[in-house]
């Protein structure tokens, strides 16, 4: 692959175009250049600190730099984001740092288990003990925490996963649950996808496939999640 300055300059020009899918592709191209692509990735990420919200473009650039294991990238990330790219907010004082690290590593199976754990913690000691949720508990979740969980999944999945993505698919299919289950590959025909081996724990999964939080696979609990006031 060419790594001359003209080629990189062309990539950087294209990176300025307000087209997230194109920008995402270019970030990955820069990462394949290894050392010549590091500075452009760092410049892109630093410039985006002026944006009002962190998006999956920031998360992808951050992850690609982190995965490079290059000393200059490690120094850069530590200098500007010593506690991680996303600052998780919680009305309940929950710590989401382990979840952020799992998502950064793309360990989606571990991240899914942690997500269910945090949802149970939000629901209270009863849910923690039983390991699953009542729909009435979901209704009372703090919006700030749901936003945090959703943002973490969105930012580190290139925008493919998250509760808001599942809601978007549900709404686009006229709130038809059977269509949702099929679209996000939780069900095929009359058969539910078997946990965990039949689920797809990487970015090749259909959009909205994760977080699974397997115990949410009931209409009432899932309905409470996808109709929560935080998404309005």
Automatic annotation (TrEMBL):
InterPro entries: ARM-type_fold (IPR016024), GUN4-like (IPR008629), GUN4-like_sf (IPR037215), GUN4_N (IPR032192). Residues 5-82 form the GUN4 N-terminal ARM-like repeat domain. Residues 90-229 form the GUN4-like domain. Coiled coil: none annotated. Gene3D superfamilies: 1.25.40.620, Gun4-like (1.10.10.1770). It holds the Pfam family GUN4_N. This is GUN4 N-terminal ARM-like repeat domain-containing protein. It comes from Almyronema epifaneia S1. The lineage of its organism: Bacteria, Bacillati, Cyanobacteriota, Cyanophyceae, Nodosilineales.
């Amino acid at each position: 692959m060419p790594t001359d300055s003209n080629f990189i300059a062309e990539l950087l020009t294209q990176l300025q175009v307000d087209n997230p899918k194109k920008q995402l592709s270019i970030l990955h191209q820069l990462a394949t250049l290894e050392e010549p692509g590091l500075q452009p990735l760092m410049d892109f990420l630093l410039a985006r600190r002026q944006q009002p919200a962190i998006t999956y473009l920031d998360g992808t650039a951050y992850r690609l730099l982190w995965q490079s294991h290059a000393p200059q990238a490690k120094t850069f990330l530590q200098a500007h984001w010593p506690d991680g790219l996303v600052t998780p907010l919680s009305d309940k004082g929950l710590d989401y740092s382990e979840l952020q690290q799992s998502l950064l590593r793309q360990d989606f199976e571990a991240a899914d288990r942690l997500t269910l754990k945090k949802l149970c913690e939000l629901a209270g000691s009863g849910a923690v003990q039983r390991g699953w949720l009542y729909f009435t508990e979901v209704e009372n979740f703090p919006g700030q925490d749901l936003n945090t969980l959703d943002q973490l999944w969105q930012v580190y999945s290139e925008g493919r996963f998250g509760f808001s993505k599942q809601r978007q698919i549900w709404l686009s299919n006229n709130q038809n649950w059977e269509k949702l289950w099929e679209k996000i590959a939780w069900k095929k025909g009359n058969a539910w996808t078997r946990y965990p081996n039949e689920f797809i724990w990487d970015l090749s999964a259909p959009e909205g496939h994760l977080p699974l939080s397997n115990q949410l696979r009931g209409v009432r609990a899932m309905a409470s999640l996808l109709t929560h006031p935080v998404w309005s």
